Amino acid sequence: MKGNFLKDKDVCIVAYAETKIGRRTGRTAYEFASEVAAELYRKTKLGPPDIDGLGFTVPLSEAGNAFWSNYCSDYLGITPRWLQTSDLGGASVTGNIARAAMAIQSGWCETVMLIGADAPSTNWRAYYGGYRNEFWDPVGIQGPPGAFGLLMNRYMAQHELDFTGLGALIVAQREGAVVNKNAYESFRKKITIDDYLNSRQVSSPLRLLDSVMFCDGGNGVVMMKTARARRLGLKRVYPIAYSEITNFNGAEQTPDITITGHSVVGPDVLKMAKMKPRDIDMFHPYDDFLIAVMLKLEQIGFCKPGQGSQFLRDTDIGPKGVLPINTGGGQICCGQPGLAGGGINVVEAVRQLMGEAGRRQVPNARNAMVTGIGVIPYGRSWGASSAMILAN
């Protein structure tokens, strides 16, 4: 990407909200969205008439609704002048923050509410088309777990994969979920590396504890110009660099599936922010699968290629550690509220930078890197890759 439209810190996040994550709750995406909005109003002392920009992620539970954003605006009683629904999958939340920043900078709107809400464990309405699914449906490859199992096999043909490193990652993230009141309640229990290693294989060598579980929930943030936030006396977290890429290596029909778009967008945002990996205080990567976190560590530059599992094994990644990772538990240990899942990583980063993480607070946190992933088709790595750096 050319230039850095976020370098002047003229736009900021002033509030975050997150619901309790549940499974088969019987609730709708609309209900979760309204709960998120109510909490954002409480924190900012704003109301529906103050919101003139509105952004959503696509809910799997409303995927058949071509007018989701319109209907949800009506449900929330908001009349936006700028309206957006992003279908970048797990990269939608960071993508919406970037697009909202540009909308505010251009004068299109003044105050933006960004909401992710979904209830796929209650109501699944998604169908994935595209010719690549024709290759895996007949042979029974079960969606993303099958695709990531193939990716792990490819990685193991190239590099050593120490599964104790992936175990160390989920153990650390589960520690965060234990003290996160919004995490799915059944996940608020400590586990060990042996628990991970002994969990059943789902798509060899991918284990049950390598992947997320679909749940229901919602999250969101409010954004506005920095000058206005100061006048209102609101806390501020600044997006200072952003990059995304979709359909990485799209011209290659048989690419190396272990090389992802984060090999581009990760170094890109670091260059924009004039930072090195060692300057990042916290890492909040999209974590639908543990191997995805590991690959991003390698390709963004936190460790050398092929050494991700050893890095995780040997590095303190807790809140007081060298590189805190997904301190609230991430999606793996909180549950994934469908395509609102990327908001879990974003909201935790904002919470940390506002100094409101309680027992899991990272000391003296000044910045965080957040990433997003969207879809993984057969025979390719994940489709959308995003990276954002936030600062206080």
Account of the 3D structure:
The protein is α/β, with parallel strands linked by helices. Helix content is 34%, strand content 17%. The strands form 3 sheets. A 5-stranded mixed beta sheet has the order 1-7-4-2-3, with helices on both faces. Strands 8-11-10-9 form a 4-stranded mixed beta sheet, with helices on both faces. 55% of the residues are buried.
Keywords:
392 residues, alpha/beta, Peroxisomal Thiolase, Chain A, domain 1, 2 domains, five-stranded mixed β-sheet, four-stranded mixed β-sheet, 13 helices, globular
The structural class is alpha/beta
Summarize model confidence as the mean pLDDT.
Answer: 96
What is the radius of gyration computed over CA atoms, rounded to a whole number of angstroms?
19 Å
CATH uppermost class of the largest domain:
Alpha Beta
Following the backbone from N to C, one meets helices and strands in this order, namely: EHEHEHEHHHHEEEHEHEHHHHEE
Say how many strands there are: 11
**Quaternary structure:** single chain
Strand and helix layout:
Blueprint lengths: L10 E8 L10 H16 L8 E5 L10 H9 L5 E5 L5 H14 L5 E8 L14 H4 L6 H16 L4 H16 L14 H6 L2 E3 L2 E2 L9 E9 H7 L5 E9 L15 H11 L10 E2 L5 H11 L7 H7 L15 H5 L7 H12 L13 E8 L9 E8 L1
Parallel strand pairs: 2-3, 2-4, 9-10
Antiparallel strand pairs: 1-7, 4-7, 5-6, 8-11, 10-11
